[in-house]
Each structure stands twice: as C-alpha cells, then as structure tokens.
Amino acid sequence: MDALKKILFIHPDLKGGGAERVLVHLVNALPKDKYQVTLFTIFKEGINKKLLHPVINHFYWFSKVFRGYSVLQKIIPASFLANRLKVNDYDIVVAYLEHVPTRILSGITNPKVKKIAWLHTKATPELLSRTFRTFEETKNAYQSFNQIVCVSQEVKNSLLHIFPQLENKTLVIENTIDFSFIQQKAQEVSFDIEFDSKTLNIVSIGRLIKVKGYERLIQIVKRVASSTDIKFKLHLIGDGELASKLNATIKKENLENYVQLLGFKENPYPYLAKADLYVCSSFTEGYNSAIIEALALEIPVLTTDCPGMNEILDNGKFGKIVPNATEDLYEGLLELITKSEELNQLKLKAKERAVYLKAQNSTRSVEHLFDTI
Questions:
Q1: Whole-angstrom Cα distance, residue 315 to residue 309?
Q2: Cα 273 versus chain centre, distance
Q3: CA–CA separation, 14 and 12 (whole Å)
Q4: Predicted pLDDT of residue 288
Q5: For residue 362, what are the CA distances in angstroms to 93, 153, 188?
Q6: Which long-range contacts (CB under 8 A, 24 or more apart) does 163-168 make?
Q7: 21-25, 135-139, 218-222: the lowest-pLDDT one
Q8: How confident is the model at residue 22 (pLDDT cuts 50, 70, 90)?
Q9: Cβ–Cβ under 8 Å, residues 116 and 373
Q10: Higher pLDDT, 2 or 75
Q11: Are 242 and 214 in contact (CB under 8 A)?
C-alpha cells in the first residue's frame, strides 16, 4: 500500500465566515485513504472547529488575535515562519487564503515541497500586497508557487491582469460545498425567532461589513416598502463592524417591521430553508458560498453582478443577476416581491440548479490537483 500523501492547509482561523466553512467541507471530504491532512490555523478562534472530522490534525500558534499582529508578521522573515511550521514534513502545503497564509507559504524553499495558493476574491495590487512588505515581494511570492487556485474565472482573470506570467500555473476550482450536510443541518429546529408565514421572507447571510452592501440594501428596503402593500421582511444573518450602525439606521428609518438583524448563527440553514428569496447585495465577491447554500435548499436568488455569479447562476439562467448599482438592485427586488409568478419561476430554476451543482463535485478537482502536482 502506498504511503498517504501528507498535506498541510494554512488558514488564519476557523471563524464563521464563508471561506472557513468551505475549508472545513473540503478537508472533511478529502479521501482518508489517500491523504493525511493537517490544518494549521494562526489563531485558535473559530466556531467551525467543532465541525472538523476527528481524523483531521489541527494545531495553532495563538489563542486569539492580538494588537500588532499584522505588523509583526511583516517584520518576521517568511522563511522563519515557514520553518517554524516544519513544512519539510509535508508533501504539499496549501495557503488557503490570500494575505498572511500566502506570505508564510512563500518562505518555503525546499523544491520537494509543492506549494499551492488559493485566491478567494477579485485580485488588485493593493489587496494582494496587504500583508507583504512591498509589491515586489508580493510578485516574487506568487511566482514561487507551483499552482495558484482561483475560486472563479473572474478571480483568475483579475489575477492574470496583474501577473500575466502566472497563466501556466493558475487554474479555477470552485468552492467545495457539502450539500448533504447543508440539507441535514437545515432540518434542525433551533429557532429563536419565527418567520411569519403570511410575510414574504428574504434572507441574506454575510459579515456586516461595507463590501457586503447591507447599508444600501436597507435603504432599498425602505424604498420598496413605500412602493408596495405586500408584506415582506429582510432577515440579515451575520455579525460585524457595521452591526450598531445598521441597527441605528433601522430604528431611525422606522424599519423594524421590514428588517431584522439576527446576528451570527452557528447553524444558519434552518433560517435559510424557510426563506422565500435569498439576496446578495455585495459590491464584490470571489465565489459566494451562501448563494450555493441557498440553491442547495432550493431558495431563489437575487444578486448583484459580482465575480463568480455568472458561473454559479449560468449567466442569470438560474437566478436573477442585476447590474451592481443601487437603482438596479432596487428594481430587481421590487419586481420579485410584486410579481409572484417570476419568483415562482426562480424557485423552479433554483431546484434545477441544485441538482446540477450537487453533481459537480469540486473535491474531485482538488484530488486531481494533489495527485498530479
């Protein structure tokens, strides 16, 4: 019997974000008879840790984020950080997120260790260089990888616009989503609130940060509420730096009957399963896992035009994609709320897309990468 291939994944933590959920789905799904998987997180923090399969080795450096960490990691040589991880003990090392994991991995110099970087969002020089000392260091780092995985074609295009010389080592592998897990968790009864069955319930899941577009979405809800007598309510699932500001806006605009912040939910799927519509209002995305999760539960989708959306929804055939502008999102939401026949058609399309996406098992693409690198 051949020895198991040893693989190390590097990630900041296992908090409740989309990339963290996808990472856990991926490492859990990899064949245990082919790979010995180890997950290193810089910080211990993370609700997703409890979802890791028992056979996955997990270790970390620090219990929680501390002041000055981002500056400190720039000062310390990447080679020192990589050596501290004993990377030479592994066949393949994966930086599963841009920024610090990518910088750590760039410090590996042993040619026997294969290096893979994962890119989850649209690339810009500023974003890629955020945790590097200089843009030149960023360029050298990405050139040192054996492969770079982008989660969508649009993300790949953005990377190659900056570094066209990386064409031959860059590929697209969409996020791994465990449909069975999502459908199983959706059956759990864990409601602290009830959705009104006489109300059209809209759900959005994401961190409460500027890029997610929730500030404009709440203003859109105000406009829609004044344009129709149809009862509807937006339920936002997630936490983040804008929570207090969004709550203040909801109260100021008297939108308590139309918008509800539910906070972070360890298991958001029972709420998502009861939605009549899922909305993504983001200004940009890499590959929105929450939209895949909505489709897995056959929930119709309305989204702004972000990287990855055309791939997920096949250029709008299986969900409504509107131009990424406030007015277009307003018109799209108003149309779906007021035209039940269009919403019902989208639900049928969501069900059809779920069957297709479930069959497109991206884990096999990751296996192929690990086996051939």
A1: 7
A2: 19
A3: 7
A4: 83
A5: 19, 14, 26
A6: 163/139, 166/142
A7: 21-25
A8: confident
A9: yes
A10: 75
A11: yes
What is the reported pLDDT for 190? 62
Rg of the chain's alpha carbons, rounded to an integer?
21
Enumerate residues 6+ apart whose C-beta is below 8 A from 37: 7, 9, 27, 30, 55, 56, 57
Q: Cite the beta strand spans of the chain per DSSP E.
A: 5-11, 35-43, 57-62, 92-95, 114-119, 147-150, 170-172, 200-205, 232-237, 259-263, 277-280, 301-304, 320-322
Cα distance between the two ends of the chain: 21
3-state secondary structure at position 57: strand
- The dihedral sign for the CA sequence 76, 77, 81, 84: negative
**Domain architecture of the chain: domains with CATH:** 5-172 (3.40.50.2000), 180-359 (3.40.50.2000)
How many beta carbons lie within 10 A of that of residue 123, not counting itself?
23
DSSP letter string, 266-316: S--HHHHHT-SEEEE--S--SS-HHHHHHHHTT--EEEE--TTHHHHTTTT
Q: Which of residues 72 and 191 earns the better pLDDT score?
A: 72
| 170 beta partners | 148
Q: Which two tokens stand for residue 51?
A: 């979802």
- CB-based contacts of 20-26 (< 8 A; 24+ apart in sequence): 20/46, 20/48, 21/48, 21/289, 22/175, 22/176, 22/177, 22/289, 23/48, 23/96, 24/48, 24/51, 24/52, 25/176, 25/177, 25/178, 25/181, 26/176, 26/363, 26/366
Mean pLDDT of 38-45: 91
Q: Are 49 and 266 in contact (CB under 8 A)?
A: no
Chain-centre distance for alpha carbon 223:
29
**Where do runs of H (alpha helix) occur along 117-236?**
125-128, 135-143, 153-162, 179-186, 214-225
Cβ atoms of residues 83 and 93 within 8 Å: no
Q: What gap in Å lies between CA 288 and CA 18, rounded to an integer?
A: 8
More confident residue, 370 or 15: 370
CB pairs under 8 A, 24+ apart, for 134-137?
none
26: tokens are: 């991926």
